[in-house]
Design goal:
The complex is a heterodimer of chains A (478) and B (1015).
Chain A: H1 29-41, H2 47-73, H3 88-99, H4 101-112, H5 122-143, H6 169-202, H7 206-215, H8 223-256, H9 268-294, H10 303-334, H11 337-348, H12 352-364, H13 372-375, H14 378-405, H15 420-443, H16 449-454
Chain B: E1 14-15, H1 16-20, H2 23-32, H3 34-38, H4 46-63, E2 71-72, E3 88-96, E4 99-108, E5 111-117, H5 130-133, H6 135-139, E6 148-152, E7 155-159, H7 161-178, E8 183-187, H8 193-205, E9 210-213, H9 220-230, E10 234-238, E11 245-249, H10 260-269, E12 280-285, H11 290-294, E13 297-300, H12 303-320, H13 332-337, H14 345-355, E14 360-364, H15 370-382, E15 390-394, H16 403-415, E16 421-425, H17 429-432, H18 439-445, E17 448-453, H19 458-461, E18 465-468, E19 477-480, E20 486-489, H20 502-511, H21 517-526, H22 534-544, E21 554-555, H23 561-573, E22 584-590, H24 603-606, E23 615-616, E24 621-623, H25 625-631, E25 637-643, E26 646-654, E27 662-667, E28 696-708, E29 712-713, H26 722-735, E30 738-740, H27 741-746, H28 750-754, E31 774-779, H29 788-796, H30 804-808, E32 817-823, E33 830-836, H31 845-849, E34 855-857, E35 863-865, H32 875-879, E36 886-887, H33 898-901, E37 916-917, H34 923-935, H35 948-952, E38 958-962, H36 969-974, E39 979-980, E40 992-995, E41 997-999
Parallel strand pairs in B: 8-9, 8-16, 11-12, 11-14, 12-13, 16-17, 17-18, 22-27, 24-26, 30-41, 31-40
Antiparallel strand pairs in B: 1-2, 3-4, 4-5, 6-7, 6-18, 10-15, 15-21, 19-20, 22-28, 23-29, 24-27, 25-26, 25-28, 31-38, 32-33, 34-35, 36-37, 39-40
The chains are: A mainly alpha (478), B alpha/beta (1015).
């Protein structure tokens, strides 16, 4: 059993003579398994968990009530109007899809790049991806005027030979988000199989035995299993890597291929991807920082992890800021008056407040991460990442709403204001997201035990005898 | 209906009286069909409606025009010559305050669904205004009065016409015996010869009775002006086609004139540069009118100063420009000497008028006092315009007193206690009477009050008897137009309820027994029809809607020097009041949508954006920018208006182009008994309007309440920031291309040089269109923004009314809208109007983004909506640069009462909630003409297909046709050098092109860039 610490251990300073200590507190394989499984196996959830899920589930229920009201009454219950045909629903969709980006990036790209530190956070990030994509998926479905025929967006063979319009970016969205959700789910689940087997083996109740046993797919930890597993994982990582870039590129096409000034710009795909990674990492931090504290995971998700993520946020935040600047430059340099006005209007028009909220949160706030003190302090990290989340929501709001509210004909300019239904639906989507997160931390291992063990010092120079990679279900083989 | 077949001789033919009135028939119906009894009494059931429909089809079938063969047939026996589903048009007419509008009403299986102008009538030539377009909705208004009501004390009792007849037999029997002592009639103005004949009959039967005519909106000043100038009242009409220079002094010739539609048509025809014609329009007015919007020079001037301005013009013309006055006008020079210092533009206008003697017009509006009219008559005569561009015809009712005076007489008689029976035919004097006459109090003093009205309105509620009136489209009547032409009003449908017409009621009161309207009208008409073959002539009259040769002879009355000089002296002596912060001018104006308030319950008109303010569902106190700023008033503030101690809380509307220290208020809102649509909209400005200040008045004080009021406009939905304001104005110049006539003469292709386009390349292969390629042109030089097309489109295409709240949220559904931009300094702003509907792009951006292919191109180039396929992503609307797509945010067709659903055009789908809709180029009209052409084995002829907006347009600004047909009008206009595509730089290839507007400023005044002289 390792030592449980509530005090932060500073492992951010790298001693070049030693491999980087990614898991602190002298953890053993057993202590890792005990600690992570212990969270899930604890009989009876803590009161705080019940209170939290009570709140989040109520919010989720509010969202579903709002959706029911919407479906029975009409899209008019939202604040949409004639120039602004897309409002919070689409903003929320893009926002949640963006949040979902960190998971795959951590799982796939960092895996392929052999970034070992990813092992502590990838499970959580991947779970978040799934939940965020679930939240995201709700909005395009309900934002249409006739929800009951939304299946027409799918290319289903039918007797009338009516196909969707393959030129429409909304259709590409269906494919992109659908693929992304499927691959992310597979990736997450595949990676979790060994851990589920651990839980199955440790289970004491029949229900848990059956449930974990069912999902563990008969995992026995044999060499052949490990071999297949790692092949599959690698393949999935390879498959998921282009998706990291494609999903948000395709989402950005919704805007970029339209001719609305402020939407019609080629910078959108990279700019959206950078923004998505930026917001995804911010959300991972926002969730992980309290979680590591509550579940005493400081030895697993160390300051080094947080700092690394902060650096990514700094990098992508700066990219996003650069993209903002480029947009303005091109609007001026391109010489298209409609485009020029779209950007002047963003910064100085009726939505200037939203624009400057976005700039302050997205461009200015991550710059504090240049200071090591700030990027290694969980509290300041939490505050700044919340700001980044706010900023990224506003980015989507600014892009979607300000562009639409004033396009080509000034006669048709309008001003969009959300209604209470808009607001409650959005707040409710957080309820749904956190409900799923809470269920996840209660019932599934939030840290990939099997993977963490591969980056522990025991695997390497301290224990000269090479050990096969794998899970030992709580006991170190002697 | 088995019981109907019981007696063989009544197998199919049943009298309508039975269906309508007889209690035993009702009993039978209720016994036979218990469901009928369960239908709420305030709704016409479908079954009842079908019965009536059957009736009118039967009648329609007889002679190709509605004929009073009062029979009903079930649909099982189809009358000869009637094809179900084939719409038919019937000529009729409507009257608004005695001003007639010639109509052709489309009837669909006996159901009138669409109003058009009568192409055979010279005042219409097929065009109408928006009031006429909205008539069908009024017919099917579920709030229309359905039965007679008798009020005793505070309680009201449902009555039938039989009850009234019983009452009338006794009461009016006694009155007939006494020669009508204590009897008075308060009636609407009407040009109906039949009613005039009945009025004569009233004099015979009730020699003691009083006859008073009241209209809140009158041209009485014009009458007395003419009476002063000529010794008797004549009507003044214009031949704007002949005029090169038109100077309007507070005169809205294109909307507020009995021949407005013809004026607009002739004026625009006279500036069609392709025909080598161009004229010039000067407008002097306080607040923007339709005519002011068309002006080449507009000078915002307080209403009280307009007379002075004309005086200054007269002084300039006679003393400096050497205009000779016709005849001897002793003392005139002296009077003109008081004209005062003239603004800089007066000499320029005077020179322009002098150059175009005999081809100019000085028109004075009905709001100006009589002496201003007098002066205009003198100047027109001196300029040689009279008889050429300004013509006079005799008035049929020239001897009647002014409406205000008539109301005064009535009030006096009532005050003396000499009236105990008042018969009110139509109108709503309790609501729209002068504020200084306590109308409700007046009515309360009279023992027997009877009101015939379409609606149970404010006046009905003040009367002992309310009687339901037949709607115009249910009535037999007749009218004369402003030039005396005779037309017959024939019914399109049997009265839906128990309505009767004013002439029928008069006949009942006079003769003691009911008479059928068509008999009364026929007897009048017979007097005008040739004796030989009268029947054919009558049928021809019904068919064409106008009696040829019935127009009055133009008269050239002699000028009465004394009256004119006296009038001008009086005017010159009465200096215009000094206006300022504590003494503003209030100007009463008819509501452009509700007229005098009578259309308040008409949703189409309530939601029709004001032509200039774009305000819907409300009226407001319109103030200029500088005035509002000086008063510290912001747009939407709730103000207190105080004129002579009468106060009203009203919302402020800050509007460009408004003369300083003036405040325009529109009449007709603030109804309390209009119905479910019209109650409580806007503010009742009649409460500020006294008999002495029917037109305008100084002495207005404006205070702020500190509260604000939500105003729903369809443009400029919100207070705009400086960034947006600048951009809006700059961009308007690229959307609405304009040039001056000088520019055009130098370079007819100026539009091409104005419109620089980058090289345009298409993203994918362009389609080619063989066969038809439908397209449209809209001539911005002709469009005056009158709004008729907007209502016509609404009626044709079943466009829902969404209400004030939804308009405020930017969800109005109109398929065609009028974009209005102000340019230049706010208080002297020029205005530019542009009708915008779907332009049917060949490379339509909407089509590319729809994920389900619900909007696609037809082989003829129509951008079509498959409503059934639409999922409602609204992506198409986002990507439409013209923002013409409209989304059904709710089910806007829900809860429409059964009877109101009858107004729907069966050729056009009712759109469901959650789908997108937009202009279809009236695809149903295209298809019906194509089918007809195919059946006849011929090609579609150019001009045969008219879209609804095109058909009603008084200025022919809209032309539709086949662009592939090189000889078509639309192809010719598209090739015109003024033609351009709005937003052509997007390379979306719209099928609608606009023709640039040409302004023709006076070169003397055009020096400053904004077209206004430096003061």
């Amino acid at each position: 059993m390792g030592i449980l610490l509530t005090k932060e251990i500073d492992n951010t300073v790298h001693d070049p003579t030693r491999p980087h200590e990614l898991i602190t507190g002298g953890q053993t394989f057993t202590s890792v398994t005990d600690h992570i499984c212990g969270i899930v196996e604890r009989p009876g959830a803590p009161k705080a968990w019940w209170i939290s899920i009570g709140i989040t589930a109520s919010l989720a229920a509010v969202m579903f009530a709002m959706i029911a009201y919407l479906i029975f009454t009409g899209v008019g219950v939202w604040g949409l109007n004639n120039p602004v045909g897309w409002g919070w629903a689409i903003v929320n969709f893009v926002f949640w899809v963006g949040i979902g980006h960190a998971g795959t990036l951590i799982s796939a790209i960092l895996f392929l790049l052999r970034q070992k530190w990813r092992t502590s956070i990838n499970r959580f990030a991947e779970a978040m991806t799934i939940f965020a994509v679930i939240c995201a998926g709700i909005f395009p479905g309900i934002h249409v005027g006739r929800v009951w025929v939304v299946w027409w967006l799918f290319p289903l063979p039918n007797y009338q030979a009516m196909w969707p319009n393959f030129r429409s970016p909304l259709l590409w969205d269906v494919f992109a988000v659908g693929t992304y959700a499927t691959v992310s789910l597979l990736f997450w689940y595949t990676g979790m199989v060994p851990d589920l087997a651990t839980l199955r083996d440790r289970a004491t109740s029949k229900v848990r035995k059956i449930a974990y046993g069912f999902f563990a797919l008969g995992w026995r930890g044999s060499n052949r299993h490990w071999h297949r597993y790692e092949k599959a994982y690698l393949l999935l990582a390879g498959l998921a890597t282009p998706l990291v870039l494609s999903v948000h590129s395709v989402v950005s096409f919704d805007f970029a291929t339209a001719q609305v000034p402020g939407w019609h710009t080629t910078i959108f795909p990279p700019y959206f991807v950078a923004g998505a990674i930026f917001s995804g990492f911010a959300m991972v931090m926002t969730c992980l920082i309290p979680a590591r504290r509550v579940f005493n995971l400081q030895n697993f998700i160390t300051l080094y992890h947080l700092e690394t993520m902060a650096k990514i946020i700094l990098a992508t935040g700066t990219m996003v800021g650069y993209a903002y600047a480029t947009e303005f430059f091109i609007a001026w340099y391109g010489g298209n008056p409609a485009e020029q006005f779209a950007f002047v209007n963003r910064a100085f028009g009726p939505y200037a407040w939203a624009y400057w909220t976005m700039v302050s949160c997205n461009v200015i706030s991550p710059q504090f991460f240049w200071f090591k003190k700030i990027r290694t302090n969980p509290w300041s990290l939490l505050v700044i990442t919340i700001f980044v989340n706010i900023g990224m929501w506003f980015e989507r709001f600014v892009i979607t709403v300000t562009s639409l509210s004033r396009d080509f004909l000034p006669s048709s300019w309008g001003y969009y204001q959300p209604t209470i239904v808009d607001i409650l639906t959005f707040v409710g989507s957080f309820g749904l997201f956190f409900t799923l997160v809470l269920l996840f931390v209660r019932f599934l291992p939030m840290i990939a035990m099997a993977e963490v063990k591969t980056v522990m010092p025991q695997q390497h120079w301290e224990n000269k005898t090479a050990r096969p990679v794998g899970d030992y279900h709580g006991t170190n083989p002697e | 209906m088995s019981s109907m077949n019981k007696s063989p001789d009544q197998a199919y033919w049943r009298s309508l009286e039975e269906l309508g009135d007889k209690p035993e028939f009702r009993q039978f119906l209720e016994g036979e069909f218990p469901a009928e009894a369960a239908v709420p009494t305030d709704a016409v059931s479908r079954r009842r409606f079908l019965q009536l429909m059957g009736a009118s089809v039967a009648m329609a079938g007889v002679v190709g025009c509605r004929w009073p063969e009062e029979k009903i047939v079930p649909f099982t026996s189809r009358p000869e010559g009637v094809d179900p589903g084939i719409p038919r048009g019937f000529a009729t007419a409507m009257e608004l305050a005695g001003e007639m509008r010639p109509l052709v009403v489309t009837s669909y299986d006996g159901r009138p669904i669409k109003v058009e102008g009568n192409a055979d009538h010279p005042l219409s030539l097929g065009a109408t205004d928006h009031f006429a377009q909205a008539l069908v909705l009024e017919l099917f208004d579920p709030d229309r009065s359905r039965h007679a009501v008798e009020r005793h004390g505070g309680t009201e009792h449902k009555r039938s016409w039989n009850d009234f007849e019983t009452y009338a037999a006794e009461h009016f029997g006694a009155l007939r015996a006494s020669g009508g002592t204590g009897l008075a009639f308060l009636v609407e103005r009407s040009s109906s010869p039949t009613r005039a004949a009945m009025q004569d009959r009233v004099r015979e039967v009730f020699p003691q009775a009083g006859w008073f005519e009241w209209e809140p909106l009158t041209r009485d000043n014009e009458r007395s002006g003419a009476a002063q100038a000529f010794g008797h009242a004549v009507a003044t009409n214009y031949r704007l086609g002949e005029a090169k220079v038109v100077a309007c002094f507070d005169a809205d010739l294109f909307q507020d004139h009995p021949t407005a539609l013809r004026n607009a048509r002739e004026y625009t025809a006279a500036r069609r540069v392709e025909d080598g014609r161009m004229n010039r329009l000067y407008v002097v007015e306080a607040g923007y009118s339709i005519t002011g919007g068309m002006a080449d020079h507009r000078f915002p001037t307080a209403s009280s100063a307009i007379g002075t301005t004309l005086l200054q013009l007269a002084a300039e013309l006679t003393t400096k420009q050497g205009l000779d006055l016709p005849g001897d006008f002793g003392g005139m020079k002296e009077a003109l000497g008081h004209a005062g210092h003239a603004p800089a533009w007066i000499p320029a206008l005077a020179r322009d008028l002098m150059h175009h003697r005999g081809a100019s017009v000085i028109a004075v509006g009905s709001r100006q006092p009589d002496w201003v009219h007098t002066l205009a008559h003198l100047l027109n005569r001196a300029l040689g315009n009279t008889g050429r561009t300004v013509v006079h015809v005799d008035l049929s009712d020239r001897n009647r007193p002014h409406h205000a005076a008539a109301m005064g007489f009535l009030a006096d008689s009532v005050g003396r206690g000499s009236v105990n029976t008042l018969v009110v035919l139509g109108g709503n004097p309790v609501f729209d009477g002068p504020a200084d006459t306590d109308m409700a109090g007046l009515f309360a003093k009279i023992e027997h009050t009877i009101h015939l009205s379409d609606f149970v309105n404010e006046t009905s509620k003040a009367c002992a008897w309310h009687l339901p009136r037949a709607h115009t489209l249910e009535s037999w009547s007749d009218v004369r137009d402003a030039e005396g032409r005779y037309s017959v009003v024939q019914p399109l449908i049997r009265p839906l309820y128990e309505g009767r017409t004013p002439i029928e009621l008069l006949a009942l009161l006079l003769e003691g027994s009911p008479a059928a309207g068509h008999v009364l009208v026929r007897s009048t008409a017979d007097g005008m029809l040739p004796v030989l073959d009268r029947e054919t002539a009558w049928l021809k009259l019904l068919q064409s809607g106008v009696l040829t040769g019935s127009e009055s002879v133009e008269v050239v009355p002699t000028l009465e020097g004394r009256g004119i000089v006296a009038g001008v002296r009086r005017g010159a002596a009465a200096h215009a009041p000094e206006l300022g912060e504590n003494n503003l001018e209030i100007i009463f104006q008819r509501d452009p949508s509700l007229y005098d308030g009578r259309f308040a319950n008409n949703g189409w008109l309530q939601e029709l954006p004001d032509f200039m303010t774009k305000l819907t569902w409300d009226n407001a106190a319109i103030l200029g920018y500088a005035t509002a700023e000086a008063l510290g008033v912001k747009h939407g503030d709730l103000l207190t208006l105080d004129v002579g101690g009468r106060t009203l809380e009203m919302a402020a509307f800050v509007q460009p182009g408004q003369a300083p220290w003036t405040c325009v208020v529109q009449l007709g809102h603030g109804r309390t008994a209009a119905g479910r649509v019209g109650d409580g909209t806007g503010f009742d400005t009649y409460t500020l309007r006294t008999a002495a200040t029917l037109d305008f008045s100084d002495g207005l004080k404006i205070g702020r309440t500190g509260r604000s009021y939500p105003l729903s406009t369809t443009q400029d939905h919100f207070a705009i920031d400086a960034t947006g304001r600048n951009e809006r104005e700059q961009r308007s110049h690229t959307l609405i291309l304009e040039g001056t006539y000088e520019e055009y003469k130098q370079d007819p292709n100026f539009v091409e040089h104005r419109h620089h386009l980058p090289p345009l390349r298409s993203l994918w292969e362009e389609r080619t269109y063989e066969g038809h390629a439908w397209g449209m042109t809209i001539d911005l030089n002709s469009c005056n923004g009158c709004n008729a097309c907007v209502v016509a489109c609404q009626a044709e295409n079943n466009i829902p009314v969404v209400g004030k709240d939804q308009v405020g949220r930017g969800r109005e559904m109109s398929w065609i809208r009028l974009d209005r931009y102000f340019q230049g300094e706010p208080d002297e702003a020029k205005v530019a109007q542009q009708p915008v509907a779907c332009v049917h792009c060949e490379m339509a951006p909407c089509e590319q983004v729809c994920p389900v292919g619900a909007t696609m191109h037809s082989a003829e180039g129509l951008n079509e909506m498959a409503y059934n396929r639409c999922v409602g992503t609204r992506y198409c609307a986002n990507n439409c640069p013209y923002k013409v797509r409209r989304f059904n945010f709710f089910n806007f067709n829900k809860d429409i009462p059964d009877v109101q659903q009858m107004v729907y055009n069966p050729e056009v789908t009712i759109r469901a909630r959650g789908v997108m809709e937009k202009c279809t180029y009236c695809v149903q009209r295209i298809e019906s003409v194509k089918i007809e052409a195919k059946n006849e084995g011929r090609e579609v002829r150019d001009g045969e297909i008219k879209t609804a907006c095109q058909q009603t347009c008084p200025t022919d600004a809209i032309v539709f046709g086949d662009l592939n047909d090189e000889t078509s009008k639309v192809a010719e206009l598209t090739a015109n050098e003024r033609s351009y595509h709005m937003l052509a730089e997007l390379n979306i290839k719209p099928r609608t092109s606009y023709l640039a507007r040409l302004r023709n400023p006076n070169p003397e005044l055009a020096e400053s860039s904004d077209g206004h002289p430096a003061h």
